[in-house]
Recover the amino acids of this structure.
């Protein structure tokens, strides 16, 4: 299994996703500032993986805090978490993981526990291992939506590389393959950083899953030709009504899927849901450097000084989503009442 991120010798080890597919190498982060840099520059990416990285970065920060009374330790730790929280604004899992780390510290202090940093390291490791378990549960639930012989379109990378391992959208495909279903995957290249071409295609080759790479603007034509049976994507944040933020280009696919009568599925853990916001209109959309559009790996692809607009994500209204696959099962419309029930359950 592909291990995207793991803890080793009090350091965070990451697959360098910027080097793929040409070079397979790891980056070792020994302090939380290095983890922040890795999140910002996409060395690690994908909402669940960013969440795990944030938790492990916070744990590294805890190890750097000198011995002091618990209350002062907590103040310093919360400041470290606040720094990590600024790494990227859209992925809900980042904030969820930091909230969980803070709760872990609260519980440890209120219980009079010692070795606070060690407890935070254990919690970060637990978040990592739980992510893989959750992905496998999602895969098992979602696999029933895929039929033998299906041609599936994916966008961006929602595989093992976007998680601690196994994957969300690609986890569903993996699970169906493990059940013996014969599937073919159309891999959307995903401009401007080519997460589909570089990362999803790499995973498909690694797992020996039949796949074909297409440019983003070919997707509608393939749907028109009847070559796409299902579409599965991941998510970076899901509002209480089911509106979903995902990699830029997802909304276009959802609209095209609706026009062609093709099921459009979102696979995401419950940690991606933001029950504090009612609709997708409240989701902050990250805008990244224009260099991602005008250059690729040091090669200019546009005139110098060209104005660029580069939102990293877009919003897909819930009405275009056929089902949302989670570790607790498959949810279909109306999402609002279902998600409200889950929110109440999580608070209790």
């Amino acid at each position: 299994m592909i291990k995207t991120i793991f803890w080793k010798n009090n350091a965070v080890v990451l697959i360098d996703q910027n080097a793929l597919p040409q070079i397979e190498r790891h980056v070792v982060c020994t302090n939380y500032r290095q983890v922040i840099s890795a999140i910002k520059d996409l060395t690690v990416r994908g909402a669940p993986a960013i969440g795990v990285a944030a938790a492990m970065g916070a744990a590294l920060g805890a190890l750097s805090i000198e011995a002091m009374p618990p209350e002062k330790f907590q103040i310093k730790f919360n400041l470290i978490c606040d720094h990590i929280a600024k790494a990227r604004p859209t992925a809900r899992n980042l904030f969820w993981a930091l909230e969980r780390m803070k709760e872990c510290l609260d519980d440890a202090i209120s219980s009079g526990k010692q070795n606070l940093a060690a407890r935070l390291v254990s919690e970060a490791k637990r978040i990592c291992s739980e992510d893989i378990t959750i992905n496998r549960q999602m895969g098992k639930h979602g696999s029933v939506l895929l039929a033998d012989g299906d041609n599936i379109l994916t966008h961006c990378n929602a595989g093992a590389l976007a998680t601690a391992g196994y994957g969300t959208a690609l986890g569903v495909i993996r699970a169906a393959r493990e059940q013996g279903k014969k599937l073919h995957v159309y891999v959307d290249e995903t401009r401007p950083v080519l997460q589909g071409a570089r990362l999803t295609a790499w995973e498909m080759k690694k797992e020996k899953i039949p796949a074909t790479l297409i440019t983003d603007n070919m997707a509608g034509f393939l749907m028109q030709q009847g070559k796409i049976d299902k579409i599965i994507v991941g998510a970076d944040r899901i509002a209480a009504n089911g509106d979903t933020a995902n990699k830029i280009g997802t909304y276009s696919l959802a609209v095209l899927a609706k026009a062609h009568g093709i099921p459009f599925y979102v696979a995401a853990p419950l940690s991606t849901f933001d029950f504090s916001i009612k609709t997708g209109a409240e989701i902050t959309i990250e805008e990244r450097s224009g260099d991602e559009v005008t250059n690729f790996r040091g090669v200019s692809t546009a005139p110098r000084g060209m104005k660029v607009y580069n939102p990293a994500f877009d919003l897909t209204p819930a009405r275009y989503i056929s089902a949302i696959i989670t570790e607790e099962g498959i949810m279909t419309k109306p999402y609002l009442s279902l998600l409200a029930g889950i929110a109440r359950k999580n608070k209790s």
In short: The two ends are 35 Å apart (CA to CA).
